[in-house]
Design goal:
Blueprint lengths: L4 H17 L3 E4 L1 H11 L1 H20 L6 E11 L2 E3 L6 E3 L2 E15 L3 H67 L5 H35 L7 E4 L12 H15 L1 H21 L5 E13 L7 H7 L2 E9 L7 H68 L4 H35 L7
Parallel strand pairs: 1-6
Antiparallel strand pairs: 2-5, 3-4, 5-7, 7-8
Amino acid sequence: MSKRLPQIFVLLFFCISTAQETPKVEFLTFADCLERTMANNLALQHGLLGEQVALTQYKASYGKLLPEITATGDNRNSWGKEIDSDTNLFVDEALHTNEGTLNANFNLFAGFAVWKNIKAEKQDRQISKINVERIKNDITIDLAQRYITILYLQEIIEANKLQIKSSEKQIELAQLKFDNGSVSESEVFKIKAQKASEELTLITNQNNLTDNLISIKQLMNLAIDTEIALSKPDLEINPLTNLDQQQYDLTKTAVNRHPAFRKSQLETDRARTELSLARSLRFPVITGRMFWRTNFSSTEDMIPTHEQISGNANTAIRFFITIPIFSRFQTWAEVKTAKLEWKQAQIFSKLEENRLSKEVMKAITDTRTSIKKRDASALAFEFTQKSLGADDLKFELGKININEWSLTKMNYNKAQATLIQSRYELLFNNALIKFYLGEAFSL
């Protein structure tokens, strides 16, 4: 027994090490993925920071209604001929004076530019806020596409593996027939070519699966080496009805709700405000200044410092007006540019409306097509499956050649892939339309 103890310890150590090295797999539903994406997505975090910046700038814009207050100090030490600030006479001796000034500048009128600037900052805040909604929409749709694609590829990969196993059995059968002299060697090569084609399809799908897994991890801001497993949703759904009769109303409703279209409308309003700001340059600017100034000299031993400060104090209020007469066409250029940019924003908003209308209409059309495609592909798969089963038996009995069997096998593979694809397409497109209409994206 004592001789076997070291072997037992080695085996136990190996089992513990293997258990520690085995990565933990996280099982996630679509709701779990969406929750993590909204909490950790880097693009969304960037947009939220932009919203905070816009909010800070909007709050700070109200400060332009207040006076600008500054304080300055001057410590002067001079030797030689100099003007004494107390007597305003030239003296030829060392002077040591200190002067302080408190300024307050008021913006009394600037063509309503201050209020228009506050309005512009408020619009910027609204734009940044709706931009966050747009980012959430985009990453939700992107996440759903990746999620559906991963499940589709996983299912199609399993089908590819079964197809390869089926081809391997046919290769064994063809090899036996070749050994018995029933078929030529070229017949065996054709089945091997069929198997090689299926293996290539498998490798391509596996590569696509890896790419989509990396993308969905990056959306959730997970480490690349994190192992995840996605929960398969119920593919038996009740699609939306009356899409043909309501497609235009649904499209209009979806476009008006879409953050991208609302953002383009806000940007049009923002461009209109910029035009108003540019026109304010044509108005005169009235400003006011109030200051209090005093000084004291450290060389005046006879007069106390506090008496010098109070005795030398000076208070003044001034008003200034600046009337624009000619600015070398600068004001004209800014007004003209702002007007053109406003028209550009209007056109862009219309382009965005057209783009989104086309996008929503495509989703509706794809949903209708997916319903018909699912039903048709289900029938096609059922018949090709029966046909392949019959041709497998015929090939074993030698009643059909390899060309006929290969054609039936290719039709079966294609019908199976089409059926799997149509079911996932219907699931995604149906959920997408509901999402466009304001419902939460759920699979």
